[in-house]
Amino acid sequence: MATDDFLDAEEQTVVMVMTSGPSTPHRCATPFYLGAVLAAMDCEVHIFFTMEGVKLMQKGIAEPLTAMEGGKRVIDFIRDAKRAGVQLHVCRPALPGYEIDPDTDLIEEVDSVARASDLADLMLRADKVVSF
């Protein structure tokens, strides 16, 4: 594929819906890596955590977690994505099911604790929506 075949990503908005969590660690690095790449290409990138995905935003969960044995820690992928400009949103309605208190239990990288309607708004204005 020639370089000219790639879309100009500038001003594109990508929303990733992250439902995977610590029970499927092999699925937990790629969204952050891809998000960082897209943000570096001048895309506006949002990752919205719902279902078990909210556990990745809980203090103490992503720190020891790796997608593969001996691999980079998921928290480091999260921090790389944040440095690149990816915005992280946690689904408020999903938190009680995992006994997560949004005021005390979330990592500092979280940008917002959001409602399902916020996700709907993000999806409707996005150029691309991807789920993991």
Please provide a written account of the structure:
The protein has 132 residues and is α/β, with parallel strands linked by helices. The protein has a single domain (11-131), classed as DsrEFH-like (Hypothetical Protein Ychn, Chain: A, 3-Layer(aba) Sandwich). It has helices at residues 30-40, 74-84, 116-125; strands at residues 13-18, 44-49, 87-91, 112-114, 128-131. A five-stranded parallel beta sheet has the order 4-3-2-1-5, sandwiched between helices. Helix 1 links the parallel strand 1 and strand 2. The chain is globular, with a radius of gyration of 15 Å. Mean pLDDT is 94; it is low at 1-5.
Record the SSE blueprint.
Blueprint lengths: L12 E6 L11 H11 L3 E6 L24 H11 L2 E5 L20 E3 L1 H10 L2 E4 L1
Parallel strand pairs: 1-2, 1-5, 2-3, 3-4
Helix pairs in contact: 1-2
